[in-house]
Each structure stands twice: as C-alpha cells, then as structure tokens.
Amino acid sequence: MSQSVEVCIIGAGVSGLKAAQHLIKNSKYSAEDIVILEAQDRIGGRLYTDRTSSKLGYSYDLGASWFHDCLTNVLFQHFYSGEDNDVFDISKDGYFDDKPECMFEKDLTGPVSEAKTKVGTIIHDIEKFIELYFLEHLSLEEDKSVKEMVDLYLLKYSKLLTEEEIKYAKVAMRYVELWHGVSWDKLSARYSILQHQGRNLFNAKGYDVIIDWLLKDIPRERILLESPVSKINRHVSNSDKRISVETKNGTVIHCNYLVVSVPLSILSLESSSDYGITWEPPLPETMTAALQKIHFGGLGKVVFEFDSIWWDMNQDRFSMIPKLTQSNEIFEELTSLPEPWSYPATAINYSAVRSKQDGTAAKGGSLVILTQSPLSNYLEKHPHEAWTYFKPMLSKIAVKEMPNEPITTITTEWSSNPYIRGAYGTIFTGDDPVNASIQLSGQVPGAGISSSTIRFAGEHTATEGEGCVNGAWMSGEREANWIMEHAGKSLKPLL
Ligand SMILES: Cc1cc2nc3c(=O)[nH]c(=O)nc-3n(C[C@H](O)[C@H](O)[C@H](O)COP(=O)(O)OP(=O)(O)OC[C@H]3O[C@@H](n4cnc5c(N)ncnc54)[C@H](O)[C@@H]3O)c2cc1C
C-alpha cells in the first residue's frame, strides 16, 4: 500500500497524538492530510491503563501515573483552570500522595525515625554537596556517578556524623534510582538531583482518559496500527513529496513533513538491528553522536493485590532503604533473583490513593511497587519471582497479619517490549543531555534540524518536563506549531 499525505507522524504515544490533534484543530490541514504509523497493536505508547487484570475492580496505570511538577505542568494547569472537567476533574480524579515519607530498613522493626536518624537531613546535605561540587566542576569529563559522590561526601564529612548517620548516608541517596530508573553507580550525579516545580498529583482516574480525549479529534482510520517503520528516505531533489517512510509490512507513505516520535531507545538502535530504523541517507553525524551521549532508564512497576488490607492505611507510600552494598559493587544485568533489600523500592498504598472504579468499597487492597533497572528487567522477565523478592521487605510494613500470597501479581513489560525497550530518557555519568535535546528539538537556530522538514517529538526531546507526559505533550505541540509556521516554505528534510 502507498499513500501520499502532507504530514506523517511515527508513533501513537502522547507526543505523536498531540502533534496530530494540534494540526487538525489549528492548521489548514485536515485529518485526511495526516497519517500516524504505530508499530504496536494499541494506541498510547507509554500511557497504558490496565483495566482488566485486577481481581478487585481497580485499574492500574502501568506507564505514567502522576502529573509531575504541577506548578508548571501544562496538563495539570489546563484541568486546574476548570476546562474539560468531564475529562479530568482535579479535585475528584487526582490525589497529592505526598504525606511525609515512611521509611523502612532490613534490620529495624517499624519505620525509621527521622528524629533519631536524621536521614532526611542527611539526604538534603548530600544533595547540596553534589550541587555545589558541580558548580565548580563544569566539564563533562568531571562528571561522577551518584555513588561516587556519596563516597566523596563521606570521605570529607564523616567526622561530623554519628555512626548511625554514616550508616544512612551510605545508602539513603539511592532513592534517586526510583526517579531515574537506573542504579546509582551509572547515574550522573550532575543531573540526578531533581528540582521539582511543585507537587506531584496522582492520576487516580487513569491516563487512558487523556489518550481518549486526544482521540476525539483524530479519526481512528488515520492511525495505522501494527505498522512498524523500518526505513526513512529523504529525497533532496525538488520532488513533490520529499520524504518517504516505509514500514516492515510494506506500506509506503510519501509526505512533506515527518514527525518522528519513537522513543529514544529506538532512535539510538543501529539500523541493522531488527527494530532499528534505516535512514537514507544516514542521519547527520552530529545527531548520531548526540544519541550516544544519552541513555534510557528502566523504571518498572509490580502490583500486588490482597484479599485484605494489612498495612497502615494512613500512609500514602512506604519507602524501602536498601542494605549496605560493597563499595565496588556494580549493578549489571541480573541473571538470578537478587537478595531482598538489594535495591531501593517504594510501595504506593494504592488503596488509599485510588478509589474503586464503581464507587463501592473494595474487599481487599493493593500495593504498587516502583523498581529500577536492573531489577525491573529481571522481574519483568520473571514475574512469578516478584513476591519472593518483596515479601520480606513488605513484612516490615505489616500492622496486621500478612497473607502468605497475593491474589494477583501484575508486572510491567516495558523493558521487553521491542518498541519501547525501557522507561524513559535518563542520564548516565558523562552523558550530554543538553546537546541531545538541542539536536532533537531543533529549538536553537542553526543547530542540527532547526530548518528541516523532518521533526522529532517525544519526552526525550523536551526542554521542559523531560522524561514526562507533559514534556512529551509539549514536544508534540511544538512540532505541530513548527509545521504550521513553515508550511509551504522551500525547506529540505535534514541537511
Ligand atoms: C513505568 C513508567 C512510569 C512512568 N511514570 C510517569 C509519571 O508518573 N508521570 C509522567 O509524567 N511520566 C511518567 N512516565 C513517562 C511517560 O510515560 C512518557 O514520558 C510518555 O508517555 C512518553 O510519550 P512519548 O510520546 O514520548 O513516547 P511513547 O508513548 O513511547 O510513544 C512512542 C510510540 O512510538 C512507537 N514506536 C516505536 N518504534 C516504532 C516504529 N519503528 N514505528 C512506528 N512506531 C514506533 C511506540 O510503540 C510508541 O507507541 C513513566 C514511564 C514509564 C515507562
């Protein structure tokens, strides 16, 4: 099959859909001028609300769950303004699950006491130490991992700390692993400390409502599912349609504008890989070099449902501080189940943050646990081992008798999904995320693709809300606006 359109969009995640919806609603193009090619058999990409696996009548967002950074989050602000309340009503459908941290560790019965251990104070001190260090050490070569920076802090300041404080200082910073989805020995300390722009609102209604909202303006027949793109040809001659896009199943789309919204993990693949994209002619070297200097994290989720609630319902979440590691331990791919407490974990008290869909009281309850790579990758491959790993850790939060087994276990599959391959962009030690975002967002005049008719969208191209739904959303809108502004001008697809 071959089709000729004005705009082709690769990827039906939130960024690709937003680009299409914005064009349809605001430009001279109609839905017939646009086609979206999606590799998978479903729409939404990393927004995925599972409404069928629960035995308790709950739904679970296996991708994004929160509106992060509410003070600057465009989606949050839109709904907060009162618009489209039928889609998402902040006061009814959202919940700020940010009661003070309730932390647990292997050798302690009951929660860790802040008053006794000052663990929160020490985390803040290490974060400030990291921030100040990188104000003086500006070059990429001087970057260090979070683990190295904690060692440096202790080398310098352990004389000021009590034995108990040193114990927590050695491991508590590993909480950042659950934000970035990767272990602290790989994570760039320079970029690991998040400057939150406001609180984080839990989306208790399910993120699929945002996808359905976008789909109101995009006729389904404009989205071709199970159409993985394998080749992008740029014709630099003055032919009518200057770009052609080929899928694995033989569809060819000719277009004037192309928005590539596939995840970074796909963009960085060699074209020889089964799921890589061949660029003809190849992508500029500046871009391929930039893609080597940014990585993909592996945040995952494990859901356990129980026929009774045996934890403290007054808490929003339970944080597990990992056991002390050997100073030279490296966290590579796991070939067997690690010992419990090897990695930090956060268990969300889902029963408290999410009311039951049909409004009746649930008979049981559930916990949603966040994990990071390499543990996520292992548990996603071996979901039946998840309970063995977490049972001893969760026993610490029990305030009533804990059941022997959960009634349901659900794990995410992001790392083994060949069209996602992880969770979102993250920054390894020595990476250069600024260059990658300049190359991909085309926002800086004269740099990379600033005047090319091939555009890039997605969380990894965001200059605000990086890694997040709101960043992906804004990147789709950015590229739709660019096309509207440049439509009809004589421009080339990448130089
Ligand atoms: C476990 C997890 C938890 C998260 N939690 C949060 C959170 O709480 N809050 C938040 O804001 N963000 C969160 N995120 C991040 C958020 O989900 C993403 O930033 C956002 O959904 C990405 O949207 P996107 O459009 O950039 O990419 P995607 O949604 O990945 O869309 C890209 C699409 O491209 C398709 N594709 C890939 N290759 C091809 C190909 N060759 N041809 C055609 N199509 C292709 C993919 O199938 C996919 O549908 C989380 C992500 C994960 C995985």
From TrEMBL:
PANTHER family: FLAVIN MONOAMINE OXIDASE, LYSINE-SPECIFIC HISTONE DEMETHYLASE 2. This is Corticosteroid-binding protein. It holds the Pfam family Amino_oxidase. InterPro entries: Amino_oxidase (IPR002937), FAD/NAD-bd_sf (IPR036188), Flavin_monoamine_oxidase (IPR050281). Residues 14-481 form the Amine oxidase domain. The gene is CBP1. It comes from the Eukaryota. It comes from [Candida] anglica.
